[in-house]
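in:
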């Protein structure tokens, strides 16, 4: 998950409930004084980085990073620099961010990335991902990923709770075929997973449901790109969804999964409209969340430096 914000003159005022503020204090060591201190320190640090002068972050964005990094200043600096560097080096994900482009409209209409509107019984954000929801011969995987990242950026705009309670991901594998796997360059998947390590938040658990016959083959390939800590967070439920109810409150799950929540079709329409409404914000983000490599102290970083020709990738690093 990335954090992208726009500059504002308003001082940061948390909207967390008293219960969540207490949780942030107990688990993250957060209080009002520490919030203000980290905002000031990070602003001063960014001002001293010549290559980050295009970056626009408000206090909310800094606090999201702080919470996701458990208020470790060094970790914040590392993740911020890496995330914005990658957003610059990965035009296949972060360029052409106009949700009204026909190919992006078509990708949004697929419903590949669907955050649920309610939190689970542990207060966590639940995100449904559907890698088999589109025709791999009609849609480019890059367009699907662009749509997904746009939804992600819109999702975090007003969701402070996410960065305190965390998130879980449901991978709905229904419809996923070998064609989805073969039509998606492996280098694209590796870059995607590399980017995830720069985000200030990683999933608590990843649930795989409605798995298909090709799932195990793909699963074996994918787990080669992640470390043991993330592997322990993977939970395979098989072709059914009933065992998912033990982990996530059935009431908030989509009707398609036997829950009481919005259907997948309704969620798809809702997020498509939300992204369209935030068109100006997203297009500004594309321009203003980039690193100026010509001004980076030392050697500038290129995509080839980071990924190599076919990608010499580090494993996904999660905390």
């Amino acid at each position: 998950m990335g954090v992208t914000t726009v500059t504002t003159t308003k001082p940061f005022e948390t909207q967390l409930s008293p219960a969540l503020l207490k949780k942030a204090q107990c688990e993250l060591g957060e209080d009002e004084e520490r919030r203000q201190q980290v905002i000031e320190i990070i602003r001063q640090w960014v001002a001293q980085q010549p290559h980050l002068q295009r970056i626009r972050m408000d206090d909310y964005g800094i606090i999201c990073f702080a919470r996701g990094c458990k208020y470790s200043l060094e970790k914040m600096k590392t993740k911020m620099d890496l995330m914005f560097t990658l957003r610059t080096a990965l035009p296949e994900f972060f360029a052409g961010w106009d949700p009204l482009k026909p190919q992006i409209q078509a990708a949004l209409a697929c419903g590949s990335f669907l955050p649920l509107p309610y939190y689970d019984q542990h207060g966590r954000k639940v995100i449904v991902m559907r890698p088999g929801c589109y025709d791999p011969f009609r849609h480019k995987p890059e367009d699907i990923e662009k749509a997904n990242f746009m939804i992600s950026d819109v999702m975090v705009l007003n969701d402070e709770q996410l960065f305190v309670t965390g998130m879980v991901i449901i991978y709905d594998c229904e419809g996923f075929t070998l064609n989805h796997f073969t039509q998606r360059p492996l280098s694209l998947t590796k870059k995607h997973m590399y980017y995830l390590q720069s985000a200030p938040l990683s999933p608590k658990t990843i649930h795989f449901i409605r798995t298909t016959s090709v799932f195990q083959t793909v699963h074996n390939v994918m787990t080669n790109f992640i470390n043991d800590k993330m592997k322990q967070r993977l939970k395979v439920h098989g072709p059914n969804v009933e065992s998912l109810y033990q982990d996530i409150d059935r009431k908030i799950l989509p009707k398609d999964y036997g829950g009481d929540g919005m259907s997948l079709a309704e969620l798809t329409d809702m997020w498509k409209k939300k992204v369209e409404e935030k068109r100006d914000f997203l297009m500004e983000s594309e321009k203003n969340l980039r690193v100026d490599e010509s001004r980076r102290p030392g050697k500038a970083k290129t995509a080839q430096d980071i990924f190599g020709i076919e990608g010499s990738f580090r494993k996904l690093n999660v905390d």
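note: The chain has 15 helices and five strands.
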